[in-house]
Structure formats: C-alpha cells, structure tokens
C-alpha cells in the first residue's frame, strides 16, 4: 500500500529534502509502484518546448546494481583526487565549513561502500547530448533545463512518500560503460544522475547550512 506523508508543509518539504545516504534503509524493500508514482510527479516538471524528452530507468536487478556500483566506486576514486573534490575543502580556514565538508565526505564514502545494497536505483536520462563540441549555451540550457527540474520533482515526491534519495554523478565518469550495460542508446541519450532510492530511517531532516543569501543575490546589475 502506498502511504503519502502529508504532515510536511510545502516549506518543510522544500527546505528539508536532503541528500540521504547513511539513513537509507538497506533492509526494507521499495515497491516499484511507489517509484512509478514519484516518476509520474516528476513528469509535471517543465521542459523546453514541452518536449518531455526525459526517461527514467528503474533498476532492481542485483547483477546490474553490482556492475553500476563498481563503476560508481571507480568514479569516486577519480573524483576524490580531482580539484573539485569535497576532500579538498575539508581543511578550510572556516572550521564550520570544514566540519560540514568532512561530514559530506564520510557520508559520500558510506554510499560508495554500500550502494549495491540500496533496493532501487533510478537513472534519469534526457534525449540529446551536451558533451560534443559546439553545443551552444542555448542548447545546453534546453537539455539540462529539461531534466534537472524533473529529477528534483522526483526527489521531492520521494521524500513525501518516505523515500530518501541523493543526486549522484560518480558513475557518469564511465557513462558509456553504464549505457552499454543498460542498453541505453548512448549517442542519442545522456544519463544525468544515479539516484539511490530507499525508505529513510527516522523522519527528522533539517534545513542545511548555506551561505548568507546576500552573497548570491545581485539586484539589477552584478
Ligand atoms: C549535480 C550533482 C551531483 C552530485 N553528485 C554526487 C555524487 O556523485 N555522490 C554523492 O554522494 N553526492 C552527490 N551529490 C549530492 C551533494 O553532495 C549534496 O547535494 C550536497 O552536499 C548538499 O547536501 P544536501 O543536498 O543534503 O543539502 C550531487 C549533487 C548534485 C546536485
């Protein structure tokens, strides 16, 4: 039976939908029907020219989950040494920031080590690719802008139904391998994320620390 958690206010939903990793319940099965319901909600997102050129792979097969987890692990290894890695910001001058970044590192590593045991993976895809040369900003915006809101809608819907998710991208370093494995037509369709999906343990998620809003607002001119 599908249970909808109606006790969240819209503001709570929007401010407490977190990247859930350590609190994913790896023991409790997730009903495919529930995942489909969340995808139906994802479909209410906007898309450029209303093309709705999105696809969602639901993966429950253990062999496929193991293979994707191996790619995820390899992706983590190459990410962690890269300049943009969270590991590079764990020792900043700001102790609060360092603490937050260390927590994210540990949480991300936990997911790497436990991914194959997550009940369901969802891989959102979009028709079109942005990694070729000469893809204009307009086209890039149309492609990514037509899938990112749908993914976030999915994550919000999942939270409403008691499911935790995290937007992850480590496996995309080996996207072609993953496409072959999943029979996705790589030349025409781009994977954008891998969302581990499981019931979350406990229900108390809080708003996250963020930079002061004035740091990012520019009124009229930059
Ligand atoms: C585009 C994108 C890629 C991400 N890739 C990963 C990833 O590969 N692995 C992971 O554990 N988290 C990943 N995250 C989750 C972020 O680490 C997380 O959103 C961020 O630390 C803020 O935490 P919060 O969502 O709980 O506020 C990604 C998030 C985004 C938006």
Walkthrough of the structure:
The chain has seven helices and five strands. By secondary structure, it is of the alpha+beta class. It has helices spanning 10-15, 32-42, 62-80, 95-114, 137-145, 148-160, 175-182; strands at 54-59, 120-127, 163-164, 189-191, 195-199. Strands 1, 2, 3, 4 and 5 form a five-stranded antiparallel beta sheet that branches. The chain has a domain at 10-62 and 119-202: NADH Oxidase, CATH 3.40.109.10. The longest helix is centred in the middle third of the chain and has 20 residues, at 95-114. It is globular, with a radius of gyration of 18 Å. Helix 2 (32-42) packs across helix 6 and helix 3 (62-80) packs antiparallel against helix 7 (175-182). Bound molecules: flavin mononucleotide. Flavin mononucleotide (FMN) is lined by residues 18-19, 104, 108, 111, 166-170, 208.
CATH architecture of one domain: 3-Layer(aba) Sandwich
> What number is the mean pLDDT?
94
Low-confidence stretches: none
The proportion of strand residues reads 5-15%
Number of helices: 7
Kindly state the percentage of residues in helix: 25-40%
Structural class: alpha+beta
User: Would you tell me which CATH topology of one domain applies?
Assistant: NADH Oxidase
Largest beta sheet, briefly?
A: 5 strands, antiparallel
Question: Can I get a quick summary?
Answer:
With about 220 residues, the protein is of the alpha+beta class. It has seven helices and five strands, in the order ααβααβααβαββ.
Provide the descriptors you would attach to this structure in a database record.
7 helices; alpha+beta; 222 residues; binds flavin mononucleotide; 11% strand; NADH Oxidase
């Amino acid at each position: 039976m599908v249970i909808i958690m109606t006790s969240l206010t819209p503001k709570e939903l929007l401010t407490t939908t977190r990247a859930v990793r350590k609190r994913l319940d790896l023991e409790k099965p997730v009903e495919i029907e529930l995942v489909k319901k969340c995808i139906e909600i994802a479909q209410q997102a906007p898309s450029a020219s209303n093309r709705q050129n999105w696809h969602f792979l639901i993966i429950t097969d253990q062999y496929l989950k193991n293979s994707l987890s191996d790619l995820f692990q390899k992706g983590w290894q190459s990410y962690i040494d890269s300049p943009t890695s969270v590991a590079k910001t764990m020792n900043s001058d700001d102790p609060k920031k360092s603490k937050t970044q260390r927590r994210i590192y540990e949480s991300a590593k936990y997911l790497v080590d436990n991914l194959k045991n997550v009940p369901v993976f969802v891989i959102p895809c979009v028709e079109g690719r942005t990694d070729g040369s000469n893809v204009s900003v307009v086209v890039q915006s149309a492609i990514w802008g037509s899938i990112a809101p749908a993914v976030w809608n999915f994550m919000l819907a999942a939270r409403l139904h008691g499911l935790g998710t995290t937007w992850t991208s480590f496996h995309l370093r080996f996207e072609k391998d993953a496409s072959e494995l999943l029979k996705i037509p790589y030349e025409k369709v781009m994977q954008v994320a891998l969302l581990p999906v499981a019931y979350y343990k406990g229900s108390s998620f809080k708003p996250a620390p963020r930079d002061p809003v004035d740091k990012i607002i520019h009124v009229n001119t930059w």
